[in-house]
Amino acid sequence: MSADSELNRKALVVEDDEDIRSLIEFTLATQGFSVVAVETGLAALDAVREHDPDLITLDLGLPGIDGIETCRRLREITDAYVVMITARDDEIDRLIGLETGADDFLSKPFSVRELKARVNALFRRPRHTGSGVAATATTPAPQTTDHEILTHASLRVDVDGRRAFKDDVELTLTRTEFDLLTELMRAPARVWSRESLLRSVWGTDWATDTHLVEVHIGNLRRKLGESSDRRYIRTVRGVGYRMDAG
């Protein structure tokens, strides 16, 4: 990420608790973000359309539509990183949140240091400068020679253009799903442990976060249209994942 893009990063804080909202705003501002804050899920949807943020912190227990439903709706209009924040340390909430498109999860109370570390890890990934979620389309996969193009079976990934295709039909992937697919396709014969994917994609090796990998792999498999007869990602029992024949 260039220095200019870092200076222009925007964040949206969605939190109804004033003290926590102010803390997150201040923390992100010290990291160079231009910050907008709202208190409800509906206001978050309007703010995303107006400001096109790069990062969203999203409280799970919002008034009106909760964080889960808000995240589901956000994923229809943005590919911003979403860090979901909850006062409940419930694994079911974490899994549902990740399944609706959250990239990471923080439980209250959390430290400023942990929030900064999570955000920094997300933004260490190289990013295309455009924004928005790719819509499913029948546009053929690009053949441009100045982009890194990965192919595996009927899959094709334009790494620099951040577009993924199956059978020349564009897939709608979140940023994290795209990064996972790219890592797996760069070394299709390699067996990736969950910990190695955490380090490569999330920039962390916190062992307690292996559920992040499992849930996002599950989401990616569904979007690839896997079935018992056609698999692109194989689970290597007791180890991790590798690409399959497809």
What does this structure look like?
The chain has 246 residues and is of the alpha/beta class. The chain has two domains: 3-123, Rossmann fold (3-Layer(aba) Sandwich); 149-243, Winged helix-like DNA-binding domain superfamily/Winged helix DNA-binding domain (Arc Repressor Mutant, subunit A, Orthogonal Bundle), CATH 1.10.10.10. It has nine helices and twelve strands. It has helices at 3-7, 18-30, 41-51, 67-74, 91-99, 112-123, 175-186, 194-202, 210-223, and strands at 10-14, 34-38, 55-59, 81-86, 104-107, 149-152, 155-158, 163-166, 169-170, 192-193, 233-236, 240-243. The protein has a five-stranded parallel β-sheet with strand order 2-1-3-4-5, with helices on both faces. Strands 6-7-8-9 form a four-stranded antiparallel β-sheet, covered by helices on one side. Helix 8 (194-202) packs across helix 9.
Biggest pleated sheet: 5 strands, parallel
- Proportion of β residues? 15-25%
Q: From the coordinates shown, what is the CATH architecture of the largest domain?
A: 3-Layer(aba) Sandwich
* Mean pLDDT, all residues: 83
Q: Class by helix and strand content?
A: alpha/beta
Percent of residues in helices = 25-40%
Strand order of the largest sheet: 2-1-3-4-5
CATH topology of the largest domain: Rossmann fold
Q: Kindly, what is the distance between the CA atoms of the first and last residues, rounded to a whole number of angstroms?
A: 33 Å
